[in-house]
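Q: Got a minute? One more chain.
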Amino acid sequence: MSALVQSYVIGMLVAGFGVTSFYFLELPLPWLLGPIAACLIAALLRVPLVQFNRLNDSMRTILGVAVGATLTPAALAQVPAMWPTLVMVPVTVAVIGALGVPYFRRICAYDFPTAYYAAMPGGLQDMIAFGEEAGAKVRTLSLIHATRILVIVVMLPFLLKGVWQADLSNPPGAPVTTIPTHELLLMIVCAVGGWRVAKALGMFGASILGPLILTGIVTLAGGLNSRPPAEALWAAQFFIGLSIGARYAGISVVEVRRDLLAGLGFCVTLIVLTLAIVEIIYVADLATGMDALLAFAPGGQAELTVLALIVGADVAYVVSHHIVRLFVVILGAPLIANLLGHRS
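A: Always. Here it is, folded:
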C-alpha cells in the first residue's frame, strides 16, 4: 500500500472514530463536528493525514443541489425583500478588513500581503491563491483561514442550541428509499453537470454554485420536488469535516504559537462583530436572529449551508448573503490589495 493511500485510509478511520465518539457522547452534529475534532487532534499528534480535495469538491456539489432544490417560486419571491441586509454585507467585509489587517500587521508582525489576505473573509482556496500571487506566506494563510472556519463551525451549533433552542438532531433530508429514482438521477446530473459547466466558465465556488444554479432552474421548471437524501448530506458533512481537521497536518510548535494563536485572536474579533450585526438586524426586525447569524457568520459557505439545512433556517436567505460576501471579497480584495500595497 502506497503512503498516499495509507494516509487516505488513516484519515477515513480517524474521521469515522470521530463520528462514533460524538454519537456515543451525544454531542451535536456528529457527522460534521466528529471528523473535525478527531482529525484536528490526530493532526496535532503528527498522524499523517492528507486532503481529499477532489472528493471534498464532489461532496460540495451535494450541498449545491440541496440549496438549489429549495429555490421554489415562493422562495425567490422573497429575495427583493432581502436588500436591507444584503447591502450590509460589503460594509461588514470592509470593517473586517479594517480591523484585521492592522491586527495581523502590528500585533502579529506579518508582512502586508500575508496580513491582508489573512484578514479577508473569503473562500480558503481563493484567498490562498490570491495571497500566493501577491507574495504572501501560503502556509500561514492556510492555517489562519482553517482556524477561522474551524472556530466558527464549532461555535455556531452550541450558540444556535443555547440561544434559539435549535434542534441539531434533525436529519438533513429524507431517507434515500423515499425519493423517486428519477429525481435521484436528476440530482446527479445537476451536481456533475452544474459543477463542470461552472468550472469551465471560471466561476468562483464552482462546486457549489454550479449545481445550485442548475438545480434551481430544474426545480423552478417542476423537475424536482425533493432535496438530496439524508445519506448524501451526511457523507458531505463527513468529508467536509475531515478536510477542515486535516488542514492542520504537519503543524509545528512554532506555527501553533504564531499562526494558530493569531487565528484564534482574530476569531474573537469576528465573533464579536458578527453578534453586533445580528443584534442590529434583529432589533430592526429585518430577519430572525438565527437566520442573521448564519448569514453573517464569516465561516465557510459549505459548512454554514449544512447548518442552515439542519436547523431549518431560511436557506435562500443564508446562501444569498454568503454568495454576496464571496463575490465582494473575490472581486474587491485583489483591487484593494494592489492599492494598499502600493501605498504601503
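A: Residues 253-283 form the longest helix (31 residues).
Q: Perfect, thanks.
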